[in-house]
């Protein structure tokens, strides 16, 4: 099923109006998307009514993992979730409006529809695999990078609106925030009141916004050498467009979007992070995390005060963290060719970003 099959009718109406018609080859998928929204409507309305009565006014401050796509956010997320945090399960991405009622009734059917692993790498997907919430938010609001993948004729605009909220009216921003809080409250209830660990690369550009919505939230930013990120992002777009695009994407401005989004996102997270105290914002370099994951997580655990926030000391969770890491030793990450010309081109287009993150250029100079 297409990911948009979990959207509500209002979101579908907006994104199809803005994105344009689906290609004839995808008419069957389009009918299934609209049919799913109509068929789920009674359950979705019932869940909204239930939430209006039962939802708490506040939830414990989330822990947010941010970092540009392909920077190691998933690896860090899957390790830290072993401490017993609440997280985003696949059902919350595919059926965010129906997580607490319908999704529980059709749990077996959801499990049967899950892919064996993520389309962009070999990370396995199960009913209990922690996911990012961006697909879920794309099913709840028109502001999401994923709408650019579904409707690549408007890739540039959907990414700018979904990541940076460019040209999004204040009323629509407020609606996005209400639905974001709505989803996190559902996740809190789904996990029995546990503190949430949320990973979403989109939020790398919007730390200030999340810090305003959750004034006690803490953030962990993981970043990676820009060359590795850019090369991997080309694969990211190629695979996801092939899998999810409802239109032809041969002329989509993918390369422009990759570079402009990366540069803006890194500038935003550095600015937003500098405005927060170290007790709320910590940074990890991907290479340091790869070399010593236990040491890096122990460091940020202490500096963010997670020991004192109902999560428990790092030492309490260390055996589960190590068990996760041991299980990953056979996992093979994607590796891409990076000849000297490719490296030089990426560096020349991102010189300020290399400098601000402290990565050397192709000749070894910072």
**Quaternary structure annotation:** single chain
Which spans of ≥5 residues are poorly predicted at pLDDT below 50? Answer: none
Question: How many strands appear in the DSSP assignment?
Answer: 4
Element order: H for helix, E for strand: HHEHHHHHHHHEHEHHEHHHHH
CATH fold name, please? Rossmann fold
Q: If strands are numbered along the chain, what order do they take across the biggest sheet?
A: 2-1-3-4
Number of domains: 1
**CATH H-level superfamily:** P-loop containing nucleotide triphosphate hydrolases
CATH class reads Alpha Beta
What Rg, in angstroms, do the CA atoms define? Answer: 20 Å
Strand content: under 5%
Count every helix, treating DSSP H or I runs of 4 or more residues as helices: 18
Please tell me the CATH architecture by its name: 3-Layer(aba) Sandwich
Distance between the termini: 46 Å
* Anisotropy-based shape: globular
Describe the structure.
With 366 residues, the chain is mainly alpha-helical. The chain has one domain: P-loop containing nucleotide triphosphate hydrolases (Rossmann fold). The protein has helices at 9-19, 27-54, 73-80, 90-94, 102-105, 107-113, 134-138, 145-150, 155-164, 170-190, 207-213, 226-244, 254-274, 286-291, 293-303, 314-327, 340-349, 351-357; strands spanning 63-66, 197-199, 218-223, 281-285. The mean pLDDT is 92.
């Amino acid at each position: 099923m297409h990911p948009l099959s979990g959207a509500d009718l209002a979101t579908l109406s907006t994104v199809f109006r803005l994105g344009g018609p689906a290609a004839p080859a995808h008419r069957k998928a389009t009918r299934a998307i609209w049919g799913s929204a109509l068929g789920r409507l009674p359950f979705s309305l019932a869940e909204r009514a239930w939430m209006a009565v039962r939802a708490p006014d506040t939830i414990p401050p989330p822990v947010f993992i941010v970092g540009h796509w392909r920077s190691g956010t998933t690896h860090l997320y899957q390790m830290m979730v072993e401490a017993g945090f609440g997280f985003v399960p696949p059902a919350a991405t595919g059926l965010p409006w129906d997580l607490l009622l319908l999704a529980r009734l059709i749990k077996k059917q959801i499990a049967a529809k899950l892919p064996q692993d993520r389309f962009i790498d070999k990370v396995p997907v199960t009913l209990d695999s922690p996911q990012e919430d961006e697909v879920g938010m794309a099913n709840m609001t028109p502001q999401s990078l994923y709408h650019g993948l579904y409707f690549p004729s408007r890739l540039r605009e959907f990414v700018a609106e979904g990541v940076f909220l460019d040209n999004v009216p204040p009323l629509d921003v407020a609606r996005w925030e209400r639905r974001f809080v709505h989803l996190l409250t559902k996740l809190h209830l789904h996990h029995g009141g546990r503190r949430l660990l949320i990973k979403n690369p989109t939020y790398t550009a919007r730390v200030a916004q999340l810090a305003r919505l959750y004034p006690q939230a803490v953030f962990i930013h993981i970043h990676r050498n820009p060359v590795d990120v850019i090369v991997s992002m080309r694969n990211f777009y190629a695979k996801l467009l092939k899998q999810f695009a409802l239109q032809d994407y041969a002329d989509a401005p993918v390369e422009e979007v990759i570079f402009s989004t990366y540069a803006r996102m890194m500038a935003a997270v550095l600015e937003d992070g500098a405005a927060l105290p170290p007790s709320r914002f910590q940074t990890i370099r991907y290479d340091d995390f790869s070399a010593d994951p236990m040491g890096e997580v122990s460091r940020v655990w202490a500096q963010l005060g997670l020991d004192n926030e109902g999560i428990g000391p790092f030492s309490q969770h260390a055996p589960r963290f190590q068990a996760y890491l041991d299980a990953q030793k056979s996992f093979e990450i994607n590796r891409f060719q990076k000849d000297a010309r490719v490296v030089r081109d990426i560096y020349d287009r991102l010189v300020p970003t290399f400098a601000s993150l402290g990565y050397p250029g192709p000749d070894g100079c910072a």
